[in-house]
Specification:
The chain has 17 helices and no strands. Helix content is 77%, strand content 0%. By secondary structure, it is mainly α. Keywords: Membrane, Transmembrane, Transmembrane helix, Transport. GO terms for molecular function: transmembrane transporter activity.
């Protein structure tokens, strides 16, 4: 039987070699899963290019339906993550994926406002726990110093999903329209929902819950070193943090972080779910062209997410990276609202995406500085879950302002206010550097 190696006695290259394996076998796989997850969450924005007219959905109805997903998501987030902590990520993440895949396919049979509301709400219920579940899973495998990069790698899927999904969705709704009696938006939901069901089954057989249980991914020396390092970190966090789930609701840091993530989420989801219609409003673009143009800001978002997370890992600084990314994201978003030409507006949206989406990677290193055990499971879910009010409020706000003013200008300006507020809240937090 091998002997665990303390952190200070780890042979040269052991840490780097272990992390390289984990990035390949865990982060890359979870990255693929999150691409599917995020695409099924936001592809309704492309469905709207055909669906709204066919079903008679007004901007206000679409905004409510797009956002109501997050109410279902919020309601079941914490219980879902607590179940995951108890039964293990492998079983629970597989269950989540199969369930959301079935409901995503059922979105193809939306018949009017009420079925739209109900199916979007149920999709949120089904997806609840996936993102925070993966975030919790990463804490089981990655030491704090590598966690920012690991989370950023996972979160990059949110933007790459749009880079891939935008042209794919645009192509599907154009090329499959009226095939076998179904509209293009219906085929899009069916074809983009099926991979979640398939990969859910794969996930059940592929994932390993914790390093202690691994017999295939790591060598005995790598596994023992990783287990020792993670236990050492957990002991350190326990000395100044919390493990009791109930205590998270009495900790002001949890609620302040929730507000930060909610403010950023209002802007992010307001843009994501309405971007195809914002681009389409420029005029003269086909659905496929709209998909291609809509993908451009997310290329910049992916680059910004990785670059800023790596710099945060290098310096060990978390709070300022999160706060300033939100601040500049809000400023660029506001500037895009008053751009004199569509090209300049698109360029400013790209700048906003570069910094605004970077908050998704660095932010999640903050709560794990003081949460561990059941408190980490419940705390990550509580922050992510309650913050989903931003996902409801953002698209709904855009729909209300768009219908009231007939323009997206004031919608973008309204969204821009919230990341700036999130910056100010984040700056009020006490946070330490990760060694």
């Amino acid at each position: 039987m091998s002997t665990a190696l303390p952190l200070t006695e780890a042979p040269p290259g052991l840490r780097a070699g272990t992390m390289k394996k984990l990035y390949t076998r865990i982060v890359l796989y979870c990255f693929v899963l999150f691409i599917i997850n995020y695409l099924d969450r936001v592809n309704v924005g492309f469905a709207a290019l055909q669906m709204n007219e066919e079903l008679g959905l007004t901007p206000r109805i679409f905004g409510i339906g797009a956002g109501i997903f997050f109410l279902g998501y919020m309601a079941f987030e914490v219980p879902s993550n607590l179940i995951l902590h108890k039964v293990g990520p492998r079983i629970w993440i597989a269950r989540i994926m199969v369930t959301w895949g079935i409901i995503s396919c059922a979105m193809a049979f939306t018949a009017g406002p009420w079925s739209f509301y109900i199916l979007r709400f149920l999709l949120g219920v089904a997806e609840a726990g996936f993102a925070p579940g993966i975030l919790l899973y990463l804490t089981y495998w990655f030491p704090a110093k590598e966690r920012g990069r690991a989370v950023a790698g996972f979160m990059t899927a949110t933007v790459l999903s749009s880079v891939i999904g935008a042209p794919l969705s645009g192509w599907l709704i154009s090329s499959t329209h009226d095939f076998a009696g179904f509209s293009g938006w219906q085929w899009m939901f069916l074809l983009e929902g099926a991979p979640a069901i398939i990969l859910g089954v794969v996930t059940f057989f592929y994932l390993v819950d914790r390093p202690e249980q691994d017999r295939h991914w790591l060598t005995p020396a790598e596994r023992d070193w990783l287990v020792a390092e993670l236990r050492q970190e957990q002991s350190a966090v326990a000395g100044h943090g919390m493990e009791d789930f109930r205590a998270i609701f009495r900790d002001s840091r949890v609620w302040l972080l929730t507000l930060v993530y909610m403010c950023n989420g209002i802007a992010i989801y307001g843009v994501v779910l309405w971007l195809p219609q914002i681009v389409k409003s420029i005029g003269g673009l086909t659905n496929l062209q709209t998909g291609l143009v809509s993908a451009i800001p997310f290329v910049f978002a992916a680059i910004g997410l990785i670059v800023i997370a790596r710099n945060s890992d290098r310096t060990g600084e978390r709070k300022l990276h999160t706060a300033l990314s939100g601040l500049f994201g809000g400023l660029f978003l506001a500037a895009s609202a008053f751009a004199p030409t569509p090209l300049i507006g698109l360029a400013l949206l790209c700048c906003a995406a570069f910094v605004l989406w970077a908050t998704l990677g660095v932010f999640w290193t903050l709560p794990t500085q003081f949460l561990t055990g059941a408190a980490a499971a419940g705390g990550l879910a509580a922050i992510n879950g309650f913050a989903q009010l931003g996902g409801f409020f953002g698209p709904t706000l855009v729909g209300w302002v768009r219908e009231s003013t007939g323009s997206f200008t004031y919608s973008l300006l309204a969204l821009a206010v919230f990341p700036v507020i999130g910056c100010l809240i984040c700056l009020s937090l006490k946070a330490r550097r990760d060694a």
